[in-house]
Amino acid sequence: MVGEAFEQFAAHSQPPAWIMDETLNRVVLFLNHVIGQEPQAQSRLARQKGRCIQLQWQDKHVQLSPTAAGLLERVADQKFDLKLTLTDNSPLAMAAAVLKGDKPGVHIEGDVQLAAEVNWLIDHVRWDIEEDLSLGLGDAAANTLVGLGKQVFKAIQQFARKAPGADFSKADL
Hints:
Number of strands: 5
Helix content: 40-55%
CATH architecture of the largest domain: 2-Layer Sandwich
CATH topology of the largest domain: Nonspecific Lipid-transfer Protein, Chain A
Mean pLDDT: 85
Order of helices and strands: HHHEEEEHEHHH
CATH class of the largest domain: Alpha Beta
Strand content: 15-25%
């Protein structure tokens, strides 16, 4: 019941355009931060310089293009080389898939080599939150916070397992 109400709210409410635009800019900055810590990821993206990757969910889309530096930049109104469309209409279903350790359903259209590079990035690039926290808080505090976060995540998994039809056994930090 709560899930249905959330889905109805998400489907029928639109935040102001400037909020969506700024949120997407922050997401791209975060992705570039993570990619910037992986030289092999940057090298793979640099080889795809100028190509257009369109990510779509329902009627919303964003276009990204790899740069010569191996990072991503937002572009607009370009013909896509690769289009990745999330097939789940429910944000809750996508979140459940991610918690299970699965990838959400995606329809892939376009260049096979570019799709393979994006898939490699998804499979191999991870945010090292402990490393980032240690820069500001020190190693011991970062380790403690990450350990606490893992305990909270496991508690949420255990709680979610009790829900009818839920199987979160594959998700792990």
